[in-house]
Amino acid sequence: MIIQVFLIAAIVSFIGSIPPGTLNILVLQLGLENKLKAAFRFAFAVAIIEYPYSWIAVEFEGWITQSPVVQENFKLLAAIVMTALGVIGLWSARKPTALASKFQQSGFRRGLILSLLNPQAIPWWIGMTAYLKAQGWIALDTPWRLHSYVLGTAIGALALLALLALMANRLSSLLQHNRVIKIIPGMVLLALGLMAFIQYFFY
To answer: What's the pTM value of the predicted model, to 2 decimals?
Structure first.
């Protein structure tokens, strides 16, 4: 059962990381810029943060699911973070400062900071964990099963981000030194942030 819980979490995490979001867009950018080592360090940092975030989701599932106010604040925080990152990304691509350049080059620290500022994993894993439990696919009634599940979420995210980095790196030789590549992630993040604001205020 421990292996089953781990594999289910890893598969769900891998699939759940596919839709465009702050972190996978940025790891794609690193791959396209031919910074594969930085992309891998970024992915590893994201996986490290995924572990406690998914653990929080599992531990506080009941309390958080009964508090719509908490869920709404997570949505607003995600909107703010994505919009801010989009604006910063566009500004850095246009007028890179020494601090911005250093931050862009640092894969691990960048991954840690952006993962901490992007706690979308918590509400996502709350809903997914509740669903998997309701289907009878997982049981998290022992510490071993719980941590096997949480480890699976981190490994799944790491695998998807590493794969994205490798795929983007394959294309980097065709797109290298293209200025558009530097501004696309910022534009996408800005669009996602604006969409999140619209969903928060009008739906």
So the answer is: 0.69
